[in-house]
Amino acid sequence: MIAAAAADVGYKEGPNNKTKHGAWYGLDYNPWCDMAVSYWAQQSGNAGAVGKFAYCPSHVNWFRERGQWIGKNAAVRRGDIVFYSWDNGPLADHVGIVTADSGPGQNIATIEGNTSSGNSGSQGNGDGCYRRVRSRGSVLGFGRPAYSGSSTGGGSSPSRAQTTIGGLVYGYGATGDHVTRVGRALVARGFGKHYSEGPGPNWTDADTLNYRDYQVSLGYRGSDADGVPGPASLTALLGSTPGAQNAPFPGAAWFRDEPRSPLITAMGRRLVAEGCGRYSDGPGPQWTDSDRQSYAAWQRKRGFGGSDADGWPGKATWDALRVPAV
């Protein structure tokens, strides 16, 4: 399905929202982001998994009713369907398809129809189909279609997708010593049959195919075994996540000054990932009572109680939370 979406990148609408997607759906001259997603699903043989919709809120409900809805800050996979709410309200305004895995709270790479190519112009009623990278701020949540086989990537050929883990790029076209390290680890585990030479610092189809074999050995199936590393499988292969650095504890007094910092956002995203988020909105960069309540939930999860679970971070619980450096 991603291949079908990628074929439309650069497509521009005619006057008054005139598009091939709207003509196909039977609602031409209307906002067409969800009709584009439905069109890509139909073109790739995934209509049954993705559905056919023109109205985003109905599409959200369709995923919810099937138990295929995940929250806005969850880890996401390529092929997930992302829904946005620009005013952070309960109804979806816009939709696209996720093109690369990303961890909890991380930015997402997408292809979207009826948007703009950059941050200027309408994001939900733009002039064409573009690749975008967005933060989670306006994300409502994600639908996770029950794809069969490797249909998110467009067949059994090696995936050409990339993903970023710990600040390092993996997947076809990635370069660096970290690519060599992955290849050597695959060979050491017995997953090197696709190399005619190497492994080396340039990620090729051979790396993707060997990594796919490794994913299958872990029990991954279908679109989850696409040969593109995810954080869990990469950490299992290497024993740690390359490039990942955790932020040092900034000191207890720093939090009592109610700081505003990207570190607070990073902390909040980790709390959400651990199931301890107590946010009605956010997390964001300003320390608030919601951060304190969320951190208290984390302290209780770590076995602290009473005054030791007061929501003010201490070094032991901070180190255990593994907040990434920002």
From TrEMBL:
Q: Name one Pfam family in it.
A: CHAP
Tell me where in this chain the Peptidase C51 domain is found. Answer: 26-114
The protein, known as: CHAP domain-containing protein
Origin organism is Streptomyces spectabilis
